[in-house]
Amino acid sequence: MTSGDKRALLSLVAGFTVWSAAFVLLYALQALGCAYGWSQHRLVLCLAFVVASLPLVWLAFWQSPADDEPASSLSVIALWANRAALGATVLVFLGPIAAVSPCL
Amino acid sequence: MSQTPSPIRLHKQLDAIWQTPSGWGRLSSVNHTVLGKRFMLVALVFFAIGGLLSMLIRAQLATPDSAFLGPELYNQIFTMHGTVMMFLFAIPMFEGCAVYMLPKLLGARDMAFPRLTAYGFWCYLFGGTILIVAMLLGAAPNGGWFMYTPLSSRPYTPGINADVWLLGITFVEISAVTAAVEIFVTILRMRAPGMSLPRMPLFAWYMLVTAGMMIFGFPPLILGSILLELERAFDLPFFDPNRGGDPLLWQHLFWLFGHPEVYIIFLPAAGALSTIIPVFAQRPMLGYRAIIAAIVAMGFLSFGLWVHHMFTVGIPHMALAFFSAASALVAVPTAVQIFAWIGTLASGRPRWDIPMLYVAGFFVVFVIGGLTGVMLAMVPFNTQAHDSYFVVAHLHYVLVGGFVFPMLAAIYYWLPHISGRQSLYRLSVPAFWLILIGFNLTFFLMHLTGLMGMPRRISTYPSNWGWDWLNLLSSIGGFILTMGLALVLADMVLQFRLGRRYRRDPWQAGTLEWATATPPPTYNFAALPRIDTRADQLSPDRIGPRLAGGEGYLGFARNGEQETLAVDIATGEIDHVIILPRRSFLPLWTALATGSIFLALLFKLYWAAPLGALVTLALFLMWPRSLGQRRDVGPVDIGRGETAVLDAEAVGNVTVLANRTAVAMNGTLFASLLFGGLFLLIVAPNWTDIAPLDMPIWAGLSALLAAAAGAVLAWLARKRNGAGRPAGGFLAAAAIAQGVATGLVVPLMLAVPDPTGHARQAVIMAVLLYAILHCGLGALMAAHGVWRIGRGFVSARRQTELVLATLWAAYAAGATALALGLTLLLGSAGGGS
């Protein structure tokens, strides 16, 4: 497996791995903020969302360099998967963080 | 060696090596074709049992105020229906399909670990048998298939019923765990040369993602089952809110598994559809790359939905919104696949046959189920419909639509491969219509009964609430559905007895499994092909005879060994030759010993369980005896003028990849345990008025140092071995260090006051026990490496044992560090007196 293949394979799951990590982080911060009564709860959540989104924005527009198969095919698939991950991040997290009450 | 004998002589030579003997020898089979068929056959038996239970349910609910079963028995029946269908039918059915099909589809001669396949099968059979026998004896689980606490805790289920579920299902899940590792490794490393990842058939992609989901999806449930059994057996209050536990922890752990589980069941079925539809559309699959991206998306998104099963438990709105949005969003990658299938059919020249009937049935039923799923993803609607028959209708539409219909399509598509005969058709068509009509009559009406307020799990209802006719029609539909399935069964039996014989590749498919003879020979392919195009666009009728004649790789029998090829993960280029273990009774004995552990726990013979564990461990240690080489052989001939090294001399062989996968799985289980501890700390009641614990920090730090030293020593041993220097001493020191770490955690455990008093102490005991077990495992792996070095199985080129010892030692050190961290955190919680 060349380094190009390895990169393409990793980028295939990179976007949604970041999405999963962001999910865990935001859900944990939401719970912690409620448990300990953080005064800047929503701000913390918004910052976490921005931080989590940055690598996803990069992944959504960066294609791992690959001249030949299988890396070139994999990198195209990875690009679409990573764009889907960015879309999922915006659709799943942004609305709730911006507009919904974080605690009971 | 490359001088190939005549095809018939080659077949006889290979069959002598790969065959399963008759009589009692059948029990020693490790062949994937045999075991795949056994998995599917047993799964169909459980399907029949589950179907029988569903008929009892519908008989009970057919009329109001029914006294047919009574509430106690009814609770057992509906619990067992769900349990049997989910754990004993759906998962094992696709496992069996994968075990049978994958090597043939990928161009290999067997799965990566044939004995593990056999072990998994026996665990499945014995575990399932425990559940069914318990039901026949009237001691079946009765708390619903998701076993919510506190109902399933000891005060409310004092008998053996819940233990049967927890232990029986955990026993069965061994087969799911082993299958996940096997499928993952087999797809990544055991394809035909030249079959790069982007050339793989879509079915393999679906199974790869499914296996990945199983690796991360099953551990939370296994952990939850262990914790609940510990609570029931030893009164450790993980789920008791009076003592710092929380019933919601069980729901989180269960649904962390339970929702991905739905997709774990659906994806293999979708893989079958992606294989069948292009064949009958007579054109390649549309959107191959988009489908792979969609599968990856589904695999991940399905882990972000679990709380939609818990929308009414009192969760903050923001969390509800996360899970609601993710639940709705998962419809998008599903739709990508559905449109790709429709597009393939629309742009092809579809020909109708029995599999296509079920594909059409799938489209109708599954789309309805998907749409009601999106409805239920909306929190306000869910709040109204929660725990009503609307949910029962939805889950049956997605599970029957998303698994049973595709599975029936797959049965009709691939049964000729197993039987060597084609369907008779006389029964197939009426069977389909009975199933489709019966199913919709049964379950569509449940949407209405649900919307009219009928709750799930009630054993009867009064006659003046307007549910009578809907329930009676549902029951009639249920029996029509059963008749249809009985006809399918009869059709299958008749096909084996009377079906028309056919020449190779009856459907004009483009995948490699049809290049084998049908029924397939024990070794699949007399020679392995080289693939230079996408592997769902081949010509099996042209390739098959050439492979049977020995044209290809490994087209010979050598030293009586079961040989197949391993390839590079991405490129599919040849990496090494795998020598697979031959048939053996060891998997059966090991499964029986494993069963003794579960039975000892079930019957509260706690003194016997460690004995069973020791016997199981001893038997597992016997497994590698026949594996490996005592000298460096170097590259060997593989045919076509090429050479490759044997697996013992390969750096990243399948054993190493499987162990890395097992570590990922194990790490997920541990992460779930850490999550449980943190969840209780933050969310559970009764944590504020407890006093901090006084823990011997010296013991913890010493244990961590010893575990870290073990990891470093194992790594040094590996480095020395790689450089051709003696490594046994360092590895022995690593084993000792890990053993010392094991001993040093004990004082910490002894310092924990009364673990039954509060969930904090219970969680600390659990994480420390986990650390002890894994330091012990690290010591065992290192000691095993020392023993293998002594036996001459290790050299600078043959270093698998050292790689594994290093891997497990590092994992043990990491687990110890995290266990100690959580211990200190929870130990300092509280502040009361």
From TrEMBL, chain A:
The entry's keywords: Membrane, Transmembrane, Transmembrane helix
Top-level lineage group: Bacteria
TM region positions: 41-62, 74-99
Record protein name field: Uncharacterized protein
Organism: Devosia salina
TrEMBL record, chain B:
The reaction(s) this protein catalyses: 4 Fe(II)-[cytochrome c] + O2 + 8 H(+)(in) = 4 Fe(III)-[cytochrome c] + 2 H2O + 4 H(+)(out)
Keywords: Cell membrane, Copper, Electron transport, Heme, Iron, Membrane, Metal-binding, Respiratory chain, Translocase, Transmembrane, Transmembrane helix, Transport
Recorded superkingdom: Bacteria
Transmembrane segments: 39-57, 77-100, 121-144, 164-190, 202-228, 262-281, 288-307, 319-344, 356-379, 391-415, 427-449, 469-494, 584-601, 607-623, 663-684, 696-717, 729-750, 762-782, 802-826
Protein topology in the membrane: Multi-pass membrane protein
Enzyme category, top tier: translocase
Pfam families named in the record: COX1
Protein's pathway: Energy metabolism; oxidative phosphorylation
Location in or out of the cell: Cell membrane
Entry EC number(s): 7.1.1.9
Stretches assigned to the Cytochrome oxidase subunit I profile domain: 18-532
PANTHER family: CYTOCHROME BO(3) UBIQUINOL OXIDASE SUBUNIT 1, CYTOCHROME C OXIDASE SUBUNIT 1
Family: Belongs to the heme-copper respiratory oxidase family.
Identification of the protein by name: cytochrome-c oxidase
Biological source species: Devosia salina
Gene name in the database record: ctaD
